[in-house]
Amino acid sequence: MSTQTGANMPTHVSVIMDGNGRWAKERGKERVYGHAEGVESVRACVEAAVETGVKYLSLYAFSEENWNRPEEEVKALMELMVKAMAAEMDELDRNGVRFVVLGNRERLGDELNRIIDSCMERTSRNSTLTLVIFLSYSGKWDILQAARKLALQLWDDPDGKEKLMNMKAEDFDGFLATAGIPDPDLIIRTSGEIRLSNYLLWQGAYSEFLFTDTLWPDFRKDDFRAALESYAKRDRRYGKVK
Fold this sequence. Notes:
Layout: E1 12-16, H1 20-26, H2 31-52, E2 56-63, H3 71-94, E3 97-102, H4 110-122, E4 129-137, H5 139-154, H6 160-165, H7 169-173, E5 186-189, E6 208-211, H8 221-232
Parallel strand pairs: 1-2, 1-5, 2-4, 3-4, 5-6
Helix pairs in contact: 1-2, 2-3, 3-4
């Protein structure tokens, strides 16, 4: 399958990775088995992004709401993330992939945060692809923490009220967790669910969406390329008339 390039190529593709648990259940396995198989889909999509020239690939790995899952599953997920980062980092670095984790990292364990910091530092100068993992993230949390940053910055500023009244949407972008990262052109959600689930509520304002019934562990390179093909056929008007 050919893939469009140039103006029709998304700069930033984001994926809500859903369906790991159902995939495992269909096979009579524990949910964590589906999460482990989902790592293979992450690897496939990273490779496809590099091959097609996508510059940013972001993945919704663990939401703030996911902390409400059974403790055993959360623990297994965190252990899987530690293992996956350690196993994949050499390959990511070799392929010029910059690794970034965004979210409420205060809720993550010390060991995981140490590994995240190490991986981010090691790959910080890579430029072929930026891989963003949203971990302990939610859109409402992001907007709230951005508003708090803004309030603290203007708190003792005598011109704070005037600056606030003259503030533009793009000025607020700099306070979000995603500051410096372009908004997603295309957001993909797997497993047949048709909702954002509190993900990139500000940044996804003008994103194109693609919903697929494919469960995340079954989503591989051909699916990623097909999503790019679908995106290439769309006419993005941003509220304007063409």
